[in-house]
Amino acid sequence: MEPKKNPKADLRRNSGLYFVLGLALVMALVYVALEWKTYDEVQDYDISLNVEDQLDEEVPMTEQIKTPPPPPPPAAPEVIEVVEDEEEVEETVIESTETSQEEEVIEVEDVEVDEVDEDIDVPFAVIEDVPIFPGCEGAKDKRACFNEKMQDHIRRNFRYPEIAQEMGIQGRVNVMFTIQTDGSIGNIRYRGPDKNLEAEALRIIEKLPKMTPGKQRGRPVRVPFSIPITFKLQ
User: Fold this and answer.
1) Which residue intervals define the domain TonB C-terminal in the entry (predicted)?
2) How many CB atoms lie within 10 A of CB 227?
3) How many domains does the chain have?
4) What is the extent of the structural domain holding 215?
C-alpha cells in the first residue's frame, strides 16, 4: 500500500504567499530605516551680550575745528590818469649812402687770396696719380702694379694663427687703411670673424713700406684703400 500524505501537512502549499509577505515586511523595514531622522536636543541659551551700563574709560569728545574766515576781496584799482607826453623826441636822420658825382672814388688795389690747402680724401679708384708702391716707379700701369705688389706683400708676410687653426676658425678680414700725404700708412681699420685673424691682418698691413703719395691736380692727397685678406684652412 502507498502511503497517502495529508494535504494540510504539505509545507510548500503556501510558500509563495509567505515569500511575498516576508518581502513586503523587509521593504517596509528598509524604508523606515532610510526615512528615520534624528534631531539634536535644543537648549535655550541666552545669547545676549553682557554689557555694563557704566564704562570705565571716558570717550573724548571731538573738538570742533574752526576754519578761518575767507580773505576780504581785493580793493578796486585806482583810476589811472592818462598824461599826455609833452616831451619832444628828436627824430633820427638817416643819411644816404649813395655817392654823388662830385665825390671822388678811391680805387682799391686787388686783394690777393691765398689758396688754402685742404686735406681731402680721394679714393684709389678715381685718383689721377695713384700712390706708387716701391718697385713700381718705372711701370707703365702703376695702378695694376700697385695691386700686384700689394698681393705679393700679403703672400710673403701671411702667417695663419696657430690658435685659429686649432679651433678651426677661418674667414675673411676686410682691411681699410689710408695712404697719407707723406706716403705712410695710417687710419687702419679692420673687421673679421675672429680677433686672432684680425690681429694677423693688422700685422700684415703695418709691415707695408712707405710709398710715394697719390696726387690730385698735382697736389698730394690722402688715398683710402681697402683689401680683403682671406684665411682658409686646407
Assistant:
1) 145-234
2) 17
3) 1
4) 142-231
Opening angle at CA 166, ends 163 and 167, nearest 5: 85
Distance CA 154, CA 141 (A): 20
Strands 219-220 and 215-216: antiparallel
Tell me if 154 is assigned to some domain.
yes
**Whole-number Å distance between alpha carbons of 177 and 208:** 11
pLDDT tens figures, 143-190: 999 999 999 999 999 999 999 999 999 999 999 999 999 999 999 999
Distance CA 102, CA 60 (A): 107
- Nearest C-alpha neighbor of 169 from the set 201, 194, 144: 194
**Residue 175 to residue 207: CA distance in whole angstroms:** 14
Measured distance CA(208)–CA(222) in Å, rounded: 16
Query: Cell numbers of 126, please?
Result: 678715381
DSSP bridge partners of 186: 178
